[in-house]
Write a structure and sequence with these properties.
single chain, 458 residues, alpha+beta, Beta-Lactamase, Helix Hairpins, Heat Shock Protein 90, 11 helices, 12 strands
């Protein structure tokens, strides 16, 4: 039930309960203090009366008699209707007692008050032994009680007033708690209302940070950071959708146009063969694009290394350089390899990642340039660096190199040597699947891609 309450209701309930407990404890302490004070007053008054009675009896002529003691005490305490008195002789026989009052047979010894009831009346009393007697060695016992009716009446009235005050104060505290909770949570409601206005078309909106209390500022900052990530992801998704449509439109348009041209006029078998071969190239390009997209989709959902084994990195790089040697010779590009290292991973995936980097370097290295692969390994990580000579690349472009469909050429021309812009994205996905990271840098006429693999994960 409590879990269904609103935060305002919970805070109000807790504040009210806390206030009620404090007020109840305070009221109980006040009542106990007043009752204790009245007891002190009663004890002082009774003790003083007993001392006076003792002095009175001590001053009387000897031998004492019942009549003389009764007369002396009765005259001395005349008018004190709240007092009740009993005198017992040496043998415990009652000499006289206040009429209409039932006295206990004995009271507790000591200075503490004794309590008893006689009918509807309540008494506080003390007992004291007085010197004297009727010529014997015995002593008199004087019991003096004080009617507490006026104290009890005051305490009852005060108790009713106090608990009415406590009840009223608890309700007032509950109201103040509700108002405080509402006002205190107003920034949270404002944040909720502001967040409700955020849609796919208004991801640039942010929650106010300066207008909220420090306790909520951290939450607002965290939500704003989340909105920034969502905005960036949504923008990337929109750009990806636009790029995907653009990339698919070109081969599909080529296929449609070539097919329509082929069907527009009768042609011989060689013409149809040429058109089908051209269409086959476009189909292969579409198949590669779809395969790459599926690979990246798997990578985003946790790419699994199917065939994990020990890999001689230098051996794999050397085979790739041998494969690309013919293409490098056509542009008089020098291929170099240095270093050695080993790691555990998927051999085919690693070859694909390195092949993407080397083929990318071949496309962008000018004639007569150099492509160098350096392998270094220490006790912490293994690093593979692919560097090629060429024009310097701006930092803004380097930051986007690993985005899908991104190419440095803004015209996005699809010539024979141009890819579709997924190679570097696939490389990064493969490296991350091996627990590593990849980065790009460009300076002093050299462009480098660095792949770092932790030895522990290797």
């Amino acid at each position: 039930m409590v879990s269904r309450l609103t935060l305002t209701a919970r805070l109000t309930l807790l504040f009210t309960i806390g206030s009620a407990i404090v007020l109840l404890v305070f009221g109980s302490l006040v009542m106990a203090a007043i009752a204790s004070h009245f007891n002190e007053l009663d004890r002082d008054e009774i003790s003083g009366k007993l001392d006076y009675a003792a002095q009175l009896v001590a001053s009387m002529e000897r031998p004492l008699s019942k009549e003389a003691v009764e007369k002396a005490l009765a005259s001395s305490f005349a008018g004190h209707h709240e007092l009740a008195m009993q005198v017992r002789g040496p043998s415990g026989v009652v000499w006289f007692a206040s009429p209409g009052v039932d006295f206990p047979l004995s009271l507790a010894a000591g200075p503490d008050l004794s309590h008893w009831r006689s009918g509807e009346r309540a008494f506080h009393g003390l007992e004291k032994r007085l010197p004297g007697g009727t010529g014997t060695e015995g002593a008199l016992t004087l019991v003096l009680g004080l009617d507490t009716a006026h104290h009890q009446h005051f305490l009852r009235s005060f108790r009713v007033t106090l608990w009415l005050f406590v009840a009223s104060a608890v309700m007032l505290m509950g109201l103040l708690g509700w108002i405080s909770a509402r006002r205190g949570l107003a920034p949270l409601r404002a944040m909720r209302e502001r967040a409700a206005t955020v849609t796919a078309h208004s991801l640039d909106r942010r929650l106010p940070v300066q207008a909220v209390p420090p306790e909520l500022a951290e939450l607002a900052v965290t939500l704003n950071e989340m909105l920034e990530r969502l905005e960036d992801a949504f923008k990337r998704l929109s750009d990806f959708s636009a790029d995907l449509a653009h990339e698919l439109r070109t081969p599909v348009s080529n296929l449609m146009m070539q097919t329509q041209v082929a069907l527009s006029l009768p042609r011989d078998a060689d013409s149809y063969r040429a058109i089908l071969e051209s269409n086959s190239e476009e189909f292969e390009r579409l198949a590669r694009m779809i395969s790459d997209m599926l690979f990246l989709a798997k990578a985003e959902n946790g790419l699994v290394l199917v065939h994990e084994e020990a890999i001689d990195v230098a051996h794999e790089v050397r085979q790739l350089l041998d494969f690309y040697e013919l293409s490098a010779d056509e542009k008089r590009i020098d291929l170099q390899l240095s270093g050695d290292g080993a790691l555990r991973g998927d051999r085919l995936m690693l070859r694909r990642a390195l092949g993407n980097l080397i083929s990318n370097a071949l496309r962008h290295t000018p004639t007569g340039g150099t492509i160098r692969v350096d392998i270094t390994q220490d006790g912490v990580q293994l690093q593979i660096q692919v560097r090629n000579t060429g024009e310097p690349i701006a930092e803004a472009q380097l930051a986007r190199f690993f985005e899908r469909f991104y190419r440095a050429d803004p015209a996005r021309q699809h010539d024979a040597g141009e890819g579709i812009g997924l190679g570097l994205s696939i490389t990064r996905a493969i490296v991350r699947a091996h627990g590593g990271e990849v980065c790009a840098a460009s300076s002093d006429g050299l462009t480098s891609f660095s792949l770092s693999f932790p030895i522990a994960s290797s």
